[in-house]
Amino acid sequence: MIINMKMQLYIIAAMSENHVIGLNNSLPWHLPDEWTHFRKVTAGKAFMMGRKSFEAPDALHSEYRNVIITAHPPAQAEPHVEYAKDISEAIALLSDETDVFILGGASIFQQMLPLAQRMYLTIIHAQVEGDAYFPAFDPNDWHLASSEFHDTDDAHAYSFSMNLYVRKQPE
């Protein structure tokens, strides 16, 4: 797999303390301020995700460009949507982009984790039930560049931290 040197791959996800990212193809929480953060960070950027993540009822789509990884693309694509059969093809389709956000699901995160330069990873401060999990990663490979804590309030049942991790350069 060849990645153009100007392309930066960023994982963006929210997970519970027990690494849950989904339940029945939806998020197991509702955090409006986290969604606002997501929109601000990803505005005008290209997204890469698996088909189930794209079709999730609470999925966010790029108004600019979405590349969906699936073995069974529909006959007619929606506006701003392209399909790729695997990650290599998705990266090739996005080769002219400088910033690409990887939105999941679990298997896409697993495959893209070694290639990502940054992770915008929100940690939900709770143990929740789910059926999709963010992959384990070595924290020694990452530098926590920033963290913003958000407490519970009337609109947020869980407290959470919006973290930015930057991959450490090899020494």
From TrEMBL:
Pfam families, sorted: DHFR_1 (PF00186)
Protein name stated in the entry: Dihydrofolate reductase
Domain DHFR: 8-167
Protein source organism: Dyadobacter endophyticus
EC number: 1.5.1.3
Domain of life (superkingdom): Bacteria
Catalytic reaction(s) noted: (6S)-5,6,7,8-tetrahydrofolate + NADP(+) = 7,8-dihydrofolate + NADPH + H(+)
Family per similarity comment: Belongs to the dihydrofolate reductase family.
Keyword DNA repair: no
Pathway where this protein functions: Cofactor biosynthesis; tetrahydrofolate biosynthesis; 5,6,7,8-tetrahydrofolate from 7,8-dihydrofolate: step 1/1
Protein keywords: NADP, One-carbon metabolism, Oxidoreductase
Keyword tRNA processing: no
Enzyme class: oxidoreductase
InterPro entries with a match to the protein in the record: DHFR (IPR012259), DHFR-like_dom_sf (IPR024072), DHFR_CS (IPR017925), DHFR_dom (IPR001796)
Described function: Key enzyme in folate metabolism. Catalyzes an essential reaction for de novo glycine and purine synthesis, and for DNA precursor synthesis.
